Amino acid sequence: MTNRYRPGTRALEVIMILAGVAFVSPLYILVNVAVKGDGDMTNPLAPARRPSLDNFVEAWNGAHLGNALINTTVIVVLSLALLVVAASLAGYTIARRTSLWSRAAFVAFLLGLLLPFQLATIPLYQLMQQFGLLGTIWGLVLFYAATLMPFSVFLYASFIRALPIQFEEAAEVDGASPVRVFFSVVFPMMRAVTGTVVILNTINIWNDFFTPRLYLSGSGTETVTVSLYSYVGQYGTQWNLIFGGLIIASLPILAAFFVLQKHVIKGFAGGLKG
Fold it and tell me: Whole-model pTM?
């Protein structure tokens, strides 16, 4: 038999091993620092001399991670519910209408992808202050739904254009209204792209620090990222507590991923394909 293990194969294996080490190293540092005590923080790469779970307990209690996780979950769920409904309706209208205004609306959403939201930080802050939304969860929900709308509409419109229109026409012949056609016929066929929208935007909202830090500052309502920031001081940072809190904060996302792993893969494959 021909020996297929050639120098090129060996070089590829070495590259893959190095890539694996580069991928695992941050995870090792995260866990290693999280189990270290205050007197064992000289070298983050050195194994912990006396591994302990005390940092997780202190991070949970000191940063009030229980309330922060609830607040973050509520914000994510409400933002996604509003975003999915609004973006899917907008994407469906843009994809199925051929008028000039629908094309102009699609171009406007595409421009929203190019313009960073930081340009409107001060006007948005003043607007929320005028409407009494500062320091409230609803202000953050509206912010996320609006800023994440362009990308979501782009995904929905691109996906709907690839769907056959015959099912909608058949429902209209049977007397279904446009709203009934959308929610009974079209929306169930968009499960793949909806999964993609939910997955990508959940990660975006869950990991965001700047927005809740700005709009919820001083309200007592904190998200996970903001609550962990309490361990960052002017003269020192408690990295072991921060890393322990980060591991706790990542567990809900990891658990959801493993439970919905098949749906996540189908969402990416089907949603991005469309």
Answer: 0.84
